[in-house]
Amino acid sequence: MNAEADVVPLARALHAEAERANQRRMLVLAGSRSRGYDRLESILDALPVPITGTTLVGPEDRLRCEQRRQVDASALLGTTRDVIAVDGHDELQPNALGKVTGAVDGGGLLVLLTPPLESWPEHRGAFADSLAVPPFELDDVTGRFKRRLVRTLRAHRGIAIVDLERDRCEADGLTDPAPRLATEPPTPPSDHQFPTAAYEACLTADQVDAVAAFESLRGTERAVVLEADRGRGKSSAAGLAAGAVALDGADVLVTAPAARNAAELFDRAGALCERLEGDAATVDSRRIETAAGGSIEFREPTAAVDTLESADIVIVDEAAALPVATLESLLAADRIAFATTIHGYEGAGRGFSVRFRDRLAESDHAVTDCTLVEPIRYAAGDPVEVWAFRALLLDARPPVDGLVTDATPETVEYRRLEPDALLADERLLREAFGLLVLAHYRTEPNDLARLLDAPNLTARALLHDGHVVSVALLAREGGLPAATRAMMYEGGRVRGNMLPDVLTSQLRDEAASDPVGRRVVRIATHHAARSRGLGSHLLERIRAEFAAGSGDGDDPAGVDWLGTGFGATPGLLSFWRKNDYRTVHVSTTRNDASGEYSALMLAPISDEGRALHDRHADWFVRRFAALSSDALDDLAPDVARAVLRSVDAEAGPPLELSAHEWRVVAGAAYGPGLFDVDPGPFRALVVRYFVDDPDTVDLTDREERLLVLRVLQGQTWETVADRLAYPSAGQCMRALGDACCPLVDRYGEDAALEVRERFGDE
Fold first, then answer.
1. Could you give the CA distance from residue 128 to residue 146 in angstroms, rounded to a whole number?
2. Strands 313-317 and 159-163
3. Could you give the CA distance from residue 645 to residue 209 in angstroms, rounded to a whole number?
4. Under a CB-based contact definition with an 8 Å cutoff, are residues 515 and 479 in contact?
5. How far from the centroid of its chain's Cα atoms is residue 363's Cα?
6. Each residue of 332-355: pLDDT tens digit?
7. Is residue 733 in a domain?
8. What domain of life is recorded for the organism (predicted)?
């Protein structure tokens, strides 16, 4: 057969069927790159698609249409195209594939150029190279993700596959869908309060319901939650509602992981404002002002938290892509709406539902829920959407609650999840990946490829009756050769070795990258089986496995340490401390997304791992007081308390105050002395108290926060009094003296005790 002659009619038929059904179709051109581009040019010449509606996603500008590299695929978010062609010859980034798939409009065509499908999994490119973290090399990266991708391409309807090397059509992709039924245009609610134009701009009844849900925000202590898969118009509905609110003279604060995530919201809000106010409305991509005095303004999440009081209504778009801690901070707003994608690469709505909805329910907000089901960009049942959900596991989820409700540490089986086993068992893969999605606010399709192909990653799980109830993802780190360690020490960066990199480059320990470790990248337990010790049981089994020297075969000499790093909160620090992980470092800058300082913790296994831990724990305790009054002067007092309590009690220098210093401390506690005269000995005493965490000292939470804010962080008396609700700075000063009394009783030497005896009864 003449493939060039036959591919064009096939592409026309696919495109025509897609237009009739208002769905998308997909065409895979498998063969040499030159043949693929020859056929693609013929197809584009033959299709009734304007060049402005076509985009090539590939490394070279080889066609007359718009061209984007895969790394820049995010530029297509919030836009639509009639045809998108993806060049997968040199590499295929799963994230990019997900983004471009969502940008193909109803009636459009997604074209994928690949090598022959049989050999494609063995091709390595830039993405595969990113998985070859030291000490691994490119040959260690596998092709399991692509093998699974090829399997899904061949299994799903609506996907045509042409083998260009054999001039053969494997599948025509035609589905002969039933004719679409005409639908009535949506109508606004009879009792609506927003302008009629806001509802007339809706494309589906779901969108009308979503806009109407925002009307509930006219009351106090209200929240709205919009949930939808991609392409359902939730951001558009939020934009129409925001425009209606601003047209009424109110101020709307919009936040999202990035400004691009809110682009559709601002487009729809701006269009509504211009329709109703014309040139009187000022419309920009980040700020809209109405003649009525209202406004819509975008701010990054951290900045939004600081300006909540200035807004009448807050809208959070792509909420599932934000950390739970950030969402909790945003709940301080009186009236707030959360719009979130249920299945998508920006974040998993299921994680939002499970991890944040409990916090929302505990708040004082009355919640209005709305779920958008009907697609807008394409008709329901779109085969390309169905394929993308399966191929990229966008809809992966843990087992249903009833299957794991009875799970306990006594009923579960500990298992190493081999990548080949995950590839062979789709249910096991979906359950494990579904739990990993819940473990982090931004799990992406790239993470699926890492799980299947990255040589430095392994997974462990607890299974209850064969179903995944708890899972941990582990990264091999360290064990680097001397030349690499020297390069890191001199300022070079090494991928995939987060803990050794920080300990070497920032903390100036060239030997830190020599011991071999396993970092717990993510850990999650099914929400239906939490608070039963399953997460701790999984960590215990992991530690026992590696301590026994039965870990991964690439480390025949065993593992020296286990570790983890995360945004520090009191709850997380307490969890890891209970599992014998100890803090050795806290970052000096906040994470841009979470707004939290990151804590690094180690659990030594071997003597070499113990030596690594001990010296870094010692250094951390020695520098913490200075950090507290400098880079960490805004660290939350409860986090500071939890950080120090999660340090090994043997770490740091012994408390050695001179007789004079003890008299200063005891004088402030029991006599007329003043803290302000010499804060130094107070800081050493307070750090030692928190690290020791002695049962013999009884201080209240308020007193401990006082020690952190005034003694360690050096906040002014007035600031501390205001934060801790003391009546005056003087009362705050007296409270600090009272808090120091039990510390003098517990640690004080002769000079301090003499002061206590002299003034104690006064």
1. 11
2. unpaired
3. 50
4. yes
5. 23
6. 999 999 998 876 555 455 567 766
7. yes
8. Archaea
Interval 277-317: pLDDT, tens: 998 899 998 999 999 999 999 999 989 999 999 999 999 99
Q: Is 221 left (phi over 0), alpha (psi -120 to 50) or beta?
A: left
564 forms bridges with which residues in the sheet? 520, 601
Rounded CA separation 17/36 (Å): 23
Residues 153 and 288 in one domain: no
For 504, which DSSP code?
I
What does pLDDT average to over the chain?
92
What 8-state DSSP symbol labels residue 217? G
Lookup: tokens for 535? 């997460």
> Does residue 620 sit in helix, strand or coil?
helix
Query: Cβ distance 95 to 394 under 8 Å?
Result: no
State the Cα–Cα distance between residues 421 and 512, nearest whole angstrom.
Answer: 34
612 lies in a domain?
A: no
250, part of any domain: yes
Strand segments, DSSP code E, in 46-98 are 54-57, 66-68, 81-87
Q: Considering only residues 77 and 203, tell me which one the structure prediction assigns the higher pLDDT.
A: 203
C-alpha to C-alpha distance for 501 and 489, rounded to whole angstroms: 9
Helix (H, G, I), strand (E, B) or coil at 672: coil
pLDDT at 554: 52
* Residue type at 613 in one-letter notation: H
Segments forming the whole domain that contains residue 160: 7-171
Asked whether 337 and 224 are in contact (CB, 8 A), the reply is yes
- Pair of tokens at residue 325: 């801690």
What is the Cα–Cα distance from 221 to 539, expressed in whole angstroms? Answer: 40
Q: What is the pLDDT of residues 573-616, one digit of tens each?
A: 999 999 999 999 999 998 866 678 999 999 999 999 999 999 99
State which of 372, 390, 409 marks the end of a domain: 372
The reply to whether 30 and 154 lie within a common domain is: yes
Check whether 377 is labelled as a binding-site residue.
Answer: yes
| Segment 625-659, tens digit of pLDDT | 999 999 999 999 999 999 999 999 999 999 999 99
**Residues 249 and 325 reside in one and the same domain:** yes
Q: What is the identity of the amino acid at 513?
A: S
Number of domains in the chain: 3
- C-alpha–C-alpha distance, residues 391 and 332, integer Å: 39
Give dist(CA 689, CA 652) in Å, integer. Answer: 12
**Of 409, 418, 423, which Cα lies nearest the Cα of 470?**
409
Q: Are residues 56 and 125 in the same domain?
A: yes
Same domain, 228 and 336: yes
Q: According to the model, what pLDDT value does residue 133 have?
A: 94
Please tell me the distance from the alpha carbon of residue 638 to that of residue 184, in angstroms, as a whole number: 56
Contacts of 129 (CB under 8 A, 6+ apart): 138, 141
pTM, two decimals, is 0.88
* % of the chain exceeding 70 in pLDDT: 95
- The reported pLDDT for the residue numbered 1 is 43
Partnered with residue 604 across adjacent β-strands are 561
Q: Which residues have C-beta within 8 Å of that of residue 357, sequence separation ≥ 6?
A: 225
Question: Which residue has 């792509």 as its token pair?
Answer: 318
Q: pLDDT value at position 759? A: 83
The whole-number pLDDT of residue 721 equals 97
Residues 131 and 26 in one domain: yes
The first and second tokens of residue 393, run together, are 């596991």
315 marked ligand binding residue: no
Alpha helices in 331-374 (DSSP H): 349-362
Residues 297 and 164 in one domain: no
Q: Give 658-705 pLDDT, tens digit per residue.
A: 999 999 999 999 989 999 999 999 999 999 999 999 988 999 999 999
The pairing of strands 313-317 and 251-255 is parallel
